[in-house]
Automatic annotation (TrEMBL):
PANTHER family per UniProt: BRANCHED-CHAIN AMINO ACID TRANSPORT SYSTEM PERMEASE PROTEIN LIVH (PTHR11795), HIGH-AFFINITY BRANCHED-CHAIN AMINO ACID TRANSPORT SYSTEM PERMEASE PROTEIN LIVH (PTHR11795:SF371)
GO molecular function per UniProt: L-isoleucine transmembrane transporter activity; L-leucine transmembrane transporter activity; L-phenylalanine transmembrane transporter activity; L-valine transmembrane transporter activity
A single GO cellular-component term on record: plasma membrane
Subcellular location: Cell membrane
Organism of provenance: Solidesulfovibrio carbinolicus
Any matching Pfam family: BPD_transp_2
Protein name in UniProt: Branched-chain amino acid ABC transporter permease
Keyword Membrane among UniProt keywords: yes
Principal cellular location given in the protein's record: membrane
Length: 307
């Protein structure tokens, strides 16, 4: 019984790591702009496809050169995927969000635009690359370790470690750097910040770079763990990561990180004790109960709006 519980804990940590990495992107954009970027789940999907083509190219599958060893491909693919996915996120910000922000339109129109951007990414991928699923290549041989009867793989440990390191890095950037201080200033008063000489657009672009980069990182490791990708893979997991960010406290980095692991833990435990068809029903009922008790989320703080 104890071994089964510990095994489920490890599985929950791995599943929650994906939710946490995606939820961090939601948290960053909302914390700075008060914008819910509903296209973020599809940026995660684009990141997985970018990782696929980067890895296939570096492995020499396209016949350009002999190819690199798997571990070297992974080392190169991680920063390359994050950079290229960040370019996609910044492009969306420049084309779709910035014109609306400069016109001062109602926030509802920006949310609708974000939903449309997500649909464009999904159907654009479908039109360009087709509906067939793609098999992600094996970069690192899977090694299975057994500790006190609990089975864990090197990929699982890697995913959990990457999620924790990403959170620590993001927390350091936001709390210990000048650009992080500017991000917090914009979240507090976006209209007063330009009067203090802070380039608001630069800070907002950097926010999208960070959020989209982490989504690309999540896409890469998700594809490594579950090596089949398709154009609609980001829709459901993106919505769930958004819910995790809300439960943790939208706008709070620690809340988004904890919310992702909480959702992963709840889903895995539900599957462990109930039929898998009840997973979403019971998991979201528990999350709804948490929000009914604490509407601002676990780490969220109620904001006061001056009139």
């Amino acid at each position: 019984m104890l071994q089964s519980f510990l095994q489920n804990i490890l599985n929950a940590l791995q599943w929650g790591s994906f939710y946490s990495l995606i939820a961090l992107g939601y948290c960053l954009v909302y914390g700075v702009l008060l914008l819910i970027n509903f296209a973020h789940g599809d940026i995660f999907m684009v990141g997985a496809y970018i990782a696929f083509y980067c890895c296939m190219f570096l492995l020499g599958k396209f016949g350009v050169f002999a190819g690199l060893p798997g571990w070297m491909v992974l080392a190169v693919a991680v920063p390359l995927t994050m950079v290229l996915t960040a370019v996609v996120g910044v492009t969306l910000e420049r084309i779709a969000y910035r014109p609306l922000r400069r016109k001062g339109v109602n926030r509802l129109y920006v949310v609708i635009t974000a939903l449309m951007c997500g649909l464009i990414l999904e159907n654009g991928n479908l039109a360009l690359l087709g509906a067939s699923r793609k098999s992600f290549p094996t970069l690192v041989p899977i090694k299975v370790f057994e500790i006190f009867g609990v089975t864990v793989t090197n990929i699982k440990l890697m995913v959990i470690g990457v999620a924790i390191l990403s959170f620590l890095l993001l927390h350091f950037i936001v709390t210990r750097t000048k650009i992080g201080m500017a991000m917090r200033a914009i979240s507090y008063d976006r209209f007063a910040v330009p009067l203090m000489g802070i380039p608001a657009d630069t800070v907002i672009v950097f926010t999208f770079v960070l959020g989209s980069g982490f989504a690309g990182l999540a896409g890469l490791f998700f594809a490594m763990t579950y090596p089949v990708i398709d154009p609609y893979m980001g829709a459901l997991i993106g919505w769930k990561a958004f819910i995790a960010a809300v439960v943790g406290g939208i706008g709070s980095i620690a809340g988004a990180f904890a919310g992702g692991f909480l959702l992963g833990f709840v889903e895995i435990m539900v599957v462990a004790f109930f039929p898998s068809t009840y997973r979403d029903l019971i998991a979201f009922s528990i999350l709804l109960l948490i929000l009914s008790i604490r509407p601002t989320g676990l780490f969220g703080v109620a904001r006061r709006t001056k009139i």
